[in-house]
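For practice. Any example?
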Amino acid sequence: MVSETRQWIRIGSAELSAEIDPLGAQLSTLKDQAGRDLLWSGDAAIWAGRAPLLFPIIGTLAGGVYRLGAQQYPLSRHGFARGSRFELLDTGPSHAAFRLQADERTLEVYPFQFDLEVHFQIAAATLEITSWVHNRGDRAMPASFGYHPGFAWPLPYGQARAEHYIEFAQDEPAPIRRLDAQGLLTAVEHPTPIVQRRLTLADALFEEDVLIFDAIKSRSVSYGAVRGPRLEIAFPDAPYLGLWTKPGAPFICIEPWHGVADPAGFSGDFRTKPGVFQLAPDESLPIRMNVSLLAAQ
């Protein structure tokens, strides 16, 4: 086992490099072979996150609490993993592994014995991330988990911000969902802004916060401009996808989720909340996301 540290852990290949902060096991830099930044810088004046991990909830809870039987537990937006210090398990030139375990602090707000392991590996021009949610307890464990990476918008290849778009691997005709002023999922369905698999990025899309795709068919998207290298973000396991920025900010978040914010008015048991998965005792769930730098065509 590698001792705990707060120093960012660097991994890389000839084509891609990354640094991970043990606080939140957060991907904090991602650069191409020329050292150009592909990830958002985390400017706290705009948004301090870079690529936080969301666990054991995603988004906001109605009333700031969730229910398990007769008990209520408070949790802030997106859960506690992003503000928790992870143990560094292993590292090498192209890989690093981190772990967060249940302790007295987490048990007060999430009464389950869990391990959350996050493994980073760079192979050629691809960053592979696999997060393992483990139930170490003796009863079923409900949870949600999400990735929240913020990529540079525009990418550092000389193309205008207005020329950037996201292209989906499949047609996505299903409506999208939105959040209300309290950050809760509304029941209203909105027409998809995707046209022929392409979403042209514009600040106006995000004036009402995040775009939520809750019937996503694609298992990957690509992001960038017509000219210049692009990024491919693959999410083979995620049933939800969120897209978000603050209008005018130089980043776009492409967020594969295993869960979603509470529906407006939700007061049921956490185990019945849409998007929550349950793990049996000793069961584990791997959740993957790959980010690949694609050469210009």
